[in-house]
Amino acid sequence: MRIVKAFAVFAAGATLAGCAPTMDATRPSRFDTTATRKVCNTQVCEMPVRITAECVVSSGAWEQILLDSGPMGPRKLVWTIVTDGFRFSEEPAAFAFFVKSGDASKLRNVRVSGNGKKLEIDFQRDGRGTWLRYGMHVRRESGAFCPALDPWILD
Fold this sequence. Notes:
Blueprint: H1 2-19, E1 37-39, E2 44-51, E3 57-59, E4 64-66, E5 73-81, E6 86-88, E7 97-101, E8 107-113, E9 118-125, E10 131-136, E11 138-140, E12 152-154
């Protein structure tokens, strides 16, 4: 009887393990159907960013920015903080934008302007369908950092 119970527990564990999505640092999970997506099919992709008093980005932090349609070649990504009291970080150790995985050579001229309210990046779209995982640092005007954002870009 113990062998039957042990086999049942083993079979249930194996079934659950087979259903679990694998962690792939090169692309978001294909099972994530709740991710917010920003489709950018123009030369310039503008994204207004709103931040709550609790330091939570309420819009503009799309989990997936889709650049896989529209013109090939150079594109521009522009995030603008529209909430008073916050800005993109310009600290070298915690700069506004950082690449976590993917081809960082597609990115050029990452810059913060407008008293920290605007983040601009030149992106070279090659249409290979690759993902780039990045992070963003936003901070309060007082200097305190908000939790880093952790979204994706699809070329």
